[in-house]
Amino acid sequence: xxxxxxxxxxxxxxxxxxxxxxxxxxxxxxxxxxxxxxxxxxxxxxxxxxxxxxxxxxxxxxxxxxxxxxxxxxxxxxxxxxxxxxxxxxxxxxxxxxxxxxxxxxxxxxxxxxxxxxxxxxxxxxxxxxxxxxxxxxxxxxxxxxxxxxxxxxxxxxxxxxxxxxxxxxxxxxxxxxxxxxxxxxxxxxxxxxxxxxxxxxxxxxxxxxxxxxxxxxxxxxxxxxxxxxxxxxxxxxxxxxxxxxxxxxx
Length: 251
Known about the structure:
This protein is mainly alpha-helical and 251 residues long. The chain is built from 11 helices and no strands. The chain is globular and about 85 Å long. 32% of the residues are buried.
């Protein structure tokens, strides 16, 4: 074998080693980015779940910290629909926490901040839906923004319908319908008439689903609706009814 052939083989071997090295380096960097982004997502998701059960534990400082984590995750994966969906939830929580600590010197500033945060939330949900149109959480997010804006119009109900088509069994849908439905029921709002059948349906599914059960049961307690819910779910299964206080008697 001539020196020319040997040199060519050596060069090819060196090139192959460099390709393998670069692929390994790329894989390592990608894995690290995925690890960091995944940790950020689950950390923020856990925080939101805690705030949903105990809203007093949320604060603007905590929300801003969570937004920084999701922003970092989106820097690595800018086409992730789930990250945009949870970013939208954080902007909604920021609107809530800032409203709870109003700037009494400037109510105009308070209103401006709320409008801005809700607009940012809607933008995040819309980005999520562009990437994944059949994501129930983002449709619920748009409905939630309308609710915070006090706009319970046809568009609001169309978002609920889209969420139901996308994920009829999703915990986030059960939570929202139960929270909204029991609020308008307690307030004796005419919106209860529009939501009552969905409310009964998602109360049942929400208690069945372990991912929404605690939230649903706590919401029932918050509105002192045990008796009404028990009546609505008279045809539900025993495991569902037994979780509602005083719904099952043995007399």
